Amino acid sequence: MSDEFDGTTLDTGTWLPHYLPAWSSRAATRATYEVRDSCLRLSVPPEQGVWCEGDHQPPLRVSAVQSGNFSGPAGSTVGQQPYRPGLRVREAQPLFRGWLPHHGYLEMRARMVLTPRSMAAWWMVGFEDDPERCAEICVAEVFGRAVEPGASAEVGMGLHAFRDPRTPEDFAAPRLPIDVAEFHTYAVDWTPTRATFLVDGEPVRECPDPPDYPMQHMIAVFDFPDWPSDDPTTPQLVVDHLRGG
């Protein structure tokens, strides 16, 4: 499966343009985005509100698309990627299964416009239909404060176990000689026994024992308003394509 982001509309059979809305609401988590020039363009403009205002620390603003979503009823603790124990669903979510890969070679070609208080990422997480199927394969995570403009950036990649007892915690952010403001291809070759992470076709690191269940895509750009920065640039993540096979 692949999405080249052609045309002018998002494929809502594949993507939900919200970020973990169960813990907030659809209205408060709506992404700022457009599809043009054969790219998905996510951004966090100054007027975008804070996600889960008054609860999540640190405060964050985010525009994201995700390829799966569900929750239990409002007031329950059943939902995806809870950010603290005992978190309660604020708005019940209908079941949505868009693109949930299970192994394969997956790649995203993208560029990032970041400030010292922003970050952009593509990761996959378990759907959590079973609470232990919750681990993460992070393919690319870049904080603006770890970018040397035009020269290099720390690119986070690896596994996060969360509440999955079978997945090891194995994450690192090697510094790579790339300009993330230009297009690069971030990829993972995911098999039942290992996940190999690549940038522009070159292997960077390998993690054994990755999650072995279907996972949903999460593509997002974040702004952290409490972090110090006087850079007025609007953070963006521009995705040319996402492919899997």
TrEMBL record:
InterPro entries: Beta-glucanase-like, ConA-like_dom_sf. It holds the Pfam family Glyco_hydro_16. Residues 37-245 form the GH16 domain. Signal peptide: none annotated. This is GH16 domain-containing protein.
